[in-house]
Design brief:
Blueprint: E1 19-23, H1 28-39, E2 43-48, H2 51-59, H3 63-66, E3 69-73, H4 79-89, H5 91-94, E4 98-103, H6 121-137, E5 141-148, H7 172-197, E6 202-206, H8 222-233, H9 241-253, E7 262-267, E8 272-277, H10 287-300
Parallel strand pairs: 1-2, 1-4, 2-3, 4-5, 5-6, 6-7
Antiparallel strand pairs: 7-8
């Protein structure tokens, strides 16, 4: 019996005339997402903190794709930078609409550090900065926003009164898990609020499985970084960025993906494989906590 072909990059619909904002587009899943989208005719705004790395990443694309990629500076660890990006990206300023926002950028397993506004770095970049960006772009989007989650969310906990881990004490991987649970909960809460507003915008979450990127080797602890480096070196253990990007591309481009969906790989409990609609933890579906998280993030991200 023949198996149904699994969804892959060749199945991305034609994206000619559509504009995407992809955060963290200079490496890993963000660059793989950008490469596929531009190959399918989309214009991609590469929203990146390091402009030199972004230029090098764009130069790595084929010439026809390079022409469709535009670089704009965005530092999600600084809400002033988010505000500047939004001011420069308003359709009235650029003359072009934005169809899809892909909240891809992230940090993982960092030593304790803080954003420009004093928030714990992993929560500040992964969740809070993207929430502020989403709030600013939603009035200008035509289609959807995609939030990048992680299987690490299964270990996450949301303490509305301690989002910066000041009372609980900082643990790098716990902070990462919390931030990714926050991303998924914000995706679902944005969908609930978009439903109430009407208009058909969608908020979707996706996770890439275990993907071999530089993201996981940033802890500053040699033993922990060596463990993740070993995992990256095992071809059976980690997906390539191109494979990891498939869940993001599915969530961002498949026409009938429902708002509030969660997309991830289909094998080994979501560690690897091809994208499908899957499920997140019961904790991520707590609408009361998600609403409180959305309100708290909105307060924290209030532009000055």
């Amino acid at each position: 019996m023949s198996r149904t072909p699994r969804w892959n990059a060749a199945d991305v619909p034609d994206q000619t005339g559509r504009t995407f904002v992809v955060t963290g587009a200079n490496a890993g899943i963000g660059l793989a997402t950008t490469a596929t989208l531009t190959a399918r005719g989309a214009k991609v705004i590469m929203a990146c903190r390091n402009l030199d790395k972004a230029e090098a990443a764009r130069d790595s694309l084929p010439p026809e794709s390079r022409e469709l990629a535009e670089i704009r500076r965005l530092d999600l660890a600084d809400l002033d930078s988010v505000e500047d990006f939004l001011a420069a990206s308003a359709p009235g300023r650029t003359g072009a609409r934005i169809d899809v926002l892909v909240n891809n950028a992230g940090v993982m397993n960092l030593p304790h550090s803080r954003t420009a506004q004093g928030h714990e770095m992993q929560f500040g970049v992964n969740a809070l900065g993207h929430h502020a960006l989403t709030a600013g772009l939603v009035p200008h989007l035509t289609d959807r926003v995609v939030w990048l989650g992680s299987l690490a969310h299964l270990r996450g906990r949301i303490d509305i009164d301690d989002l910066n881990m000041e009372r609980r004490g900082y643990r790098p991987m716990a902070a990462y898990a919390d931030s990714k649970l926050a991303c998924i909960m914000l995706a679902y809460e944005w969908q609930r609020r978009l439903d109430r507003l009407g208009g058909g915008l969608r908020s979707v979450a996706a996770h890439p499985g275990y993907t071999s990127t530089e993201l996981i080797r940033q802890s500053g602890r040699p033993l922990a970084d060596r463990f993740f480096e070993l995992g990256n070196s095992l071809t059976w253990a980690g997906l390539t960025p191109e494979m990891g990007a498939l869940s993001v591309l599915y969530a961002a481009t498949v026409p009938d993906v429902a708002g509030g969906a969660f997309v991830g790989p289909d094998r080994l409990g979501g560690l690897k494989g091809y994208p499908k609609i899957t499920s997140s933890s019961s904790r991520s579906r707590d609408a009361g906590v998600a609403a409180a998280l959305w309100e708290r993030c909105t307060e924290m991200a209030a532009f000055r």
